[in-house]
Write a structure and sequence with these properties.
This protein is of the alpha+beta class. It contains eight helices and 21 strands. The strands form four sheets. Strands 1, 2, 11, 12, 13, 14, 20 and 21 form an eight-stranded mixed sheet that branches. It has an eight-stranded mixed sheet with strand order 8-9-7-16-17-18-15-19. A three-stranded antiparallel sheet has the order 3-10-6. Helix 3 crosses helix 7. The longest helix is centred in the N-terminal third of the chain and has 19 residues, at 61-79.
């Protein structure tokens, strides 16, 4: 059998891409070795339409959010399990200066779809430090990534199209009309390797800017959160007394080891949000496949039309991957253009430079 696509990697990007490939009638075989600390498995899966201290709308949020929402809701119907938890986000102001920054932007009507209310002051709470007020952001939420990935793995394995073994790229061959890997032949191969993509010999010329993130799971007795809270870190209610808190960003240390420093940093930031005592139940670490310009890396190799990449979404993969997967498939199957900001063609000069240095 000749598959349509060989997909390497089954984190968030690879799992979403294979969903869309199969939904479009393509045959797929996937190679992946699940890692408990892969970035996709430890992330909170947060969707936040308003990002950062400068209150910027998330890039292309108007295009990404409807497609992502439809995709995750369809998955829930397919698997009979809730995966997408829609919950408003209370973005708490840290300082009066942040209040002023927001007020300077709040007249922009493009925000109206995502901001429910602005609170310059909120009443004192015995649970949350909210006296400086904040924004109540609509259309936020999170995706239960571990559950999603587990469901997809079981589905693929049941159909014998998931090979849980390392992919030895030295055995990959370019052949007429596609690629050959051991006993598998496919028309095209797509690499969805996350942080490992920085070492892929076909794409190591791309400007990955990997960073390490750590998060905490905590237990907060006698507290029922109305919102996802955000002030320097997010506090995501997972049900009952369970919450997920994150995340740190570390570009210097890329070891996959949890650190006491990050634990203390996150604990301190939790105390700036919550007034309630909490217990840390788990600490996780993952390496994000971020990019220098903070835009995804999707597209076709400059010289090998049967080799593509779907990567570089950093902490925004939950939001961006569904629409970008559709775009990549349309580019591969119908020769439709990719967004220039996401297309790896923007970095082809780096590829040419890498060739000249060999």
């Amino acid at each position: 059998m000749i598959y349509d696509y060989l997909v390497v990697g089954h984190g968030l990007a690879g799992a979403i891409l294979t969903c869309f490939l199969e939904n479009s009638g393509k045959t797929v075989v996937v190679y992946d070795v699940p890692k408990s600390n892969a970035a996709s498995r430890v992330a909170a899966g947060l969707i936040n339409p308003v990002a950062g201290k400068r209150f910027a709308k998330s890039w292309q949020i108007d295009a990404f959010l409807p497609v992502a929402t439809q995709f995750y809701q369809a998955l829930e119907k397919q698997y009979g399990e809730q995966l997408f938890f829609q919950k408003p986000i209370l973005k708490l102001f840290s300082t009066p200066e942040e209040q002023n920054t927001w007020m300077g932007k709040s007249a922009d009507t493009s925000w109206q779809e995502y901001v429910e209310t602005t609170h310059l002051h909120l009443p004192p709470s015995e649970n949350v430090s909210q006296e400086l007020g904040g924004l109540l952001i609509k259309k936020g939420g999170y995706v239960a990534l571990r559950s999603f990935l587990s469901l997809r793995e079981k589905d693929l394995a049941a159909r014998n199209v998931l090979r849980s073994q390392p992919f030895d790229i030295s055995q990959l061959q370019m052949v007429p009309h596609g690629v050959q890997y051991q006993d598998v032949q496919a028309r095209k191969i797509i690499f969805c390797e996350g942080a490992q993509g920085a070492e892929n010999p076909y794409f190591n010329w791309l400007p990955f800017s990997l960073n390490k993130g750590e998060i905490l799971d905590i237990k907060v007795p006698d507290f029922k959160a109305e919102y996802i809270y955000n002030k320097a870190v997010y506090v995501v209610p997972l049900g009952g007394e369970k919450y997920r808190v994150g995340a740190t960003y570390n570009w210097r240390d890329l070891t996959e080891e949890i650190s006491e420093e990050s634990k203390e940093e996150l604990s301190g930031k939790i105390k700036e949000i919550l007034k309630k005592p909490f217990d840390i139940t788990e600490q996780y670490v993952g390496i994000r496949p971020a990019v220098r310009d903070r835009k995804p890396l999707i597209g076709v190799h400059p010289e090998l039309s049967q080799v593509a990449i779907f990567n570089g979404m950093g902490s925004k993969g939950v939001l961006m991957a569904p629409l970008l997967a559709q775009q990549l498939i349309a580019a591969l199957e119908e020769d439709k253009p990719l967004w220039a900001e996401a297309n790896i063609a923007r970095y082809f000069s780096l590829y040419l430079a890498s060739k000249s240095n060999r």
